[in-house]
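Our consortium's second objective concerns turning raw sequence data into structural hypotheses that experimental partners can test. To show how far this objective has progressed, the report includes one record in full. It was chosen at random from the queue rather than selected for favorable results. The single chain below, 291 residues long, was entered without modification.
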Amino acid sequence: MPRNFAPIGLTALLVLAVASLAVAYPVTVTDDRGQELALETAPLRIVAVGALYAEIVVDLGIGDRLIAIADSDDNPASLDGLASVGPTYAPNVELIMGFDPDIVLGATDWGGERPALEAAGIPVLTTPMLTSISSLFNSIRTIGTALGVEVQSTLLAGRIATDIIEAEAAILDTPAISATFLYASSPDDPPYTAGAGAIEHELILRAGGDNVFADVEGFPQISFEEIIARNPDVIFTAPSQIENILANPLLQAVSAVDAGRVFGIKASVVASTRVAEALRAMIEALHDTDP
């Protein structure tokens, strides 16, 4: 199986090696802009804008510190009924301010929420886009440090790493299956694929696949002709987009479509603390096995 990423076992060892470290305030962490955020005390009133942030806080065992979240179908079920600050893509700044949070996780510059909150003196922490499992671990550790639970964040990353290792062990010596991860929001428009530098690409490799678009970077839009030429045996996509691929008349000759091997994997699971769940589903789809 091809591997062009750092062994997860080494990552796990490095993560667990610092499990005894405790957070002593004040602390400084670095956000997705490369800017430093200094925190004098542990934030006890947290607003999470984005399911990933809410999920990490819950998985760190401090979900009781969340006072409000943005609306998302992917929020942890344990947070049902928690106060809302509006949709993830357009949170309401005034509502957020009204909760008097110690920190806001996930607010960005896209809609102007982060500048407005920072101008009001509210600390905001947003971590970089997840491009790999390593970047997920970094986000968990950054958030754990900011919230004063660095040990818990180290242990959480270690648990995820262990789950990934156990899943991979089931298919270590199996032949690689050609595959791709497509996002086809429309049945008519050419889809986007996950190339090198995308966490979906890493998961294909870890699942024992060979990404037919490994030579492209990020998430470029690709032509139907290119998909036909590269002819993957398996296609992964969002569950809601499976039919956009299976019913596309231009893709009927593609091996994955012809064999009905088009599988739905939610992006919110891929880029989350449940990444091992996505990996197991991809292994099962690629190798017709239950890891």
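The partners drew two points from this record. The first strand starts at residue 27 and ends at 30. Residues 20-162 form a domain with the Rossmann fold fold (CATH 3.40.50.1980). Both points have been shared with the crystallography group to help prioritize constructs.
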